[in-house]
Design goal:
The complex is a heterodimer of chains A (115) and B (145). Chain A has 115 residues and is α/β, with parallel strands linked by helices. Chain A has a single domain, classed as HprK N-terminal domain-like (Udp-n-acetylmuramoylalanyl-d-glutamate--2,6- Diaminopimelate Ligase, Chain: A, domain 1, 3-Layer(aba) Sandwich). Chain A contains 5 helices and 5 strands. Chain A is globular and about 30 Å long. In chain B, strand 2 and strand 3 form a beta hairpin. The two termini of chain B are 18 Å apart. In chain B, helix 1 runs antiparallel to helix 2 and helix 2 packs antiparallel against helix 5. Chain B is built from 5 helices and 5 strands, in the order E-H-H-E-E-H-H-H-E-E. Classes of the chains: A alpha/beta (115), B alpha+beta (145). At the A-B interface, helix 2 and helix 3 of A face helix 1, helix 2 and helix 5 of B. The structure holds adenosine-5'-diphosphate and magnesium ion (MG).
């Protein structure tokens, strides 16, 4: 599944400036849920979608460093403006959703994403 | 590649906004040099964790990289407060990070364990009141291990 298909199947808003949903053709390798950055650094794999409640800049930094496919900021949390700038500078697709982290992860799982 | 490329960046203390910049620069340099992607990724993980530690725990420090054909050596040094009990600090879950850092998702006590896991060689030297030096070596090919 490509990242752009997520926007069609979940209640997601793409918030990285300059990115267009239809151009997000990266393949998703699975998902990871955590609000602990070191846990994501150590355990998440390249190409995964990361579901988190954190919205600060380091989320974009971590996603870029370890090559994640996309970040979903869940629970209606709003990423900080500098997070979005950093995401844009590094081509990181950041989405927001009113879904809780639990519901977002459940829907990703139901779409066939596993670990 | 026969020469050794040397890079060095200063990371100011408590500046979370710039955290990850040094690691990102090291990552980009390695990518340009054609270092294998899985090695670049491990270097990025270890460097980011060490960079964050000097920002959170040491009032700032220096991230240095030496890249040769065979390996990348990352040295992260600071003149901060030092670590009284290194054995304890290396345990997963041990953290003295302040509350504001924890709220940002740092301070899970996984940084040093991550550095040990992702690097091929890891060393830590720390003196209370003087500072801390972390070195991590990453071999570019498994046969050089
Ligand atoms: N550069 C440093 N200077 C002083 N103390 C440090 C440094 N790096 C690590 N420490 C100490 O070691 C502990 C464990 O570090 P780490 O495993 O990265 O976890 P965390 O950063 O999440 O607390 C820190 O909480 C801190 O007490
Ligand atoms: Mg740490």
């Amino acid at each position: 599944m490509q990242v752009k298909e997520l926007t069609e199947k979940l209640e997601l808003t793409l918030v990285t400036p300059g990115l267009k949903a239809e151009e997000l053709t990266a393949e998703i390798a699975g998902g990871y849920v955590s609000d602990l950055l070191s846990n994501v650094m150590g355990q998440a794999r390249p190409g995964q979608v990361w579901v988190t409640m954190q919205g600060h800049q380091n989320v974009a930094a971590v996603a870029a460093l370890i090559g994640l496919a996309a970040v979903i900021v869940a629970g209606g949390a709003k990423p900080a403006p500098d997070t979005l700038e950093r995401a844009a500078a590094n081509d990181v697709a950041v989405f927001t959703t009113p879904l809780s982290a639990f519901a977002a992860a459940g829907k990703l799982y139901a779409l066939g994403l596993r670990d | 590649m026969t020469d050794t490329l040397k890079l060095s960046y200063y990371c100011p203390g408590d500046d979370f906004d710039r955290a990850g910049e040094a690691s990102a620069k090291v990552k980009k340099a390695l990518q340009r040099l054609g270092v294998p992607p899985d090695v670049v990724r491990r270097v990025a993980i270890g460097t980011y964790e060490a960079e964050l530690n000097v920002i959170i725990h040491a009032g700032g420090g220096t991230v240095a990289a030496e890249v040769s054909g065979e390996s990348t050596l990352i040295t992260v040094s600071d003149e901060g407060k030092g670590i009284p009990d290194i054995e304890a600090a290396l345990q997963e879950g041990f953290s003295t990070a302040p509350e504001y850092a924890r709220q940002m998702g740092f301070g899970a006590g996984m940084g040093l364990p991550n550095m040990m896991k992702c690097s091929d060689e890891f060393n830590i030297e720390s003196t209370v009141g003087k500072g801390t030096v972390i070195t991590m070596r990453f071999y570019h090919r498994s046969e050089d291990l």
